Amino acid sequence: MRITIRTFAGSVVVLAGMMVMLSTARAEDFDIWLGLDTADRGSELVLTTSAASAMSRFIGTKVAITQSSNLAEAFTARALDNEAIIGPAHVTAAALQNGYRLIATTGQDTTYALVVRKDISSTEQLRGTRLYLTQPHSVRTYIGKGWLSQMDLPLKAFADVTYGRTGGAGLIAISSNLADATVVEENEAKQWIANNPGYAVVLKTTRSIPGGLGFAVRRDVNAEQRARLLQWVNSPDGLIVGVGKFVAVAASEQDKYNYVISFAATNAPLAPATGVQRVSAGATVRQ
């Protein structure tokens, strides 16, 4: 199986800077780890200063937000040492499994689609074909790997796996005969297929999955601080520039992440597979 990882020089510089995690903080700080998915458009335009300042006013304690696009960090003790974690569905799901509780989200539920060449009509036909996924630790790839494995299609069933930048690039790869299948949000897939007929079809869709970012607070955070955080969430200040407005959720909303948790076995540990290395655009790594 051949694995290709596509990167962009500018993104590598940004990523290197973002990987400087968790500088020494005062014991009284309320630390928040914010994980951003580089496959999401606009993730490089997130500004946290005003949000941290507003939260500090609400809870009466200095809030320090550490922003990172290295989502593998979300599954380490280093990230789990924070009072709160904000991140996409798979990051939030991991936090919920490690002593955190969900208090808010920024997005509506979504579904993902397995998009294939128009001449493919069954998952069995995908064996030996070319798969396009977004960056290894993105939510699309996390869901895609777990979902495909549940269909008895682990990555080793494909002849070629390419890791690129965005889901939209996977659709273009299909139309350019560079890939045979990809996993993207269903709405994006339907819109692209409508605008580019004759290349691809939606073969399957997932169940509903939480969209946007989840805001999870460690269970040992005292009730007063949690209540004040919810006051921030419910106020006009309850947003992060580039992420969006948070909306408070009921405890039952955590159940929606169980489906995402079902993909964990395929994705653990959340790190590049042995023998895979990051390479420049256009290069390939063979396994």
Largest sheet: 7 strands, mixed
Note the gap between the termini: 6 Å
Number of helices: 10
Radius of gyration: 19 Å
Spans of at least 5 consecutive residues whose pLDDT stays below 50 are 7-27, 269-287
How many β strands by DSSP? Answer: 15
List the strand order in the largest sheet: 10-6-9-7-8-1-15
Output the structural class: alpha/beta
Beta-strand portion reads 15-25%
Shape: elongated
What report would you give on this structure?
It is a single chain. By secondary structure, the protein is α/β, with parallel strands linked by helices. It has ten helices and 15 strands. The chain has helices at 9-18, 49-59, 77-80, 89-96, 139-150, 167-175, 186-195, 223-234, 258-261, 264-267, and strands at 2-5, 30-35, 63-68, 84-87, 100-105, 112-117, 130-133, 160-163, 181-185, 200-205, 214-218, 239-240, 244-245, 247-248, 285-286. The strands form three sheets. Strands 10-6-9-7-8-1-15 form a seven-stranded mixed β-sheet. Helix 2 (49-59) links the parallel strand 2 (30-35) and strand 3 (63-68). Helix 2 (49-59) packs across helix 8. The longest helix is centred in the middle third of the chain and has 12 residues, at 139-150.
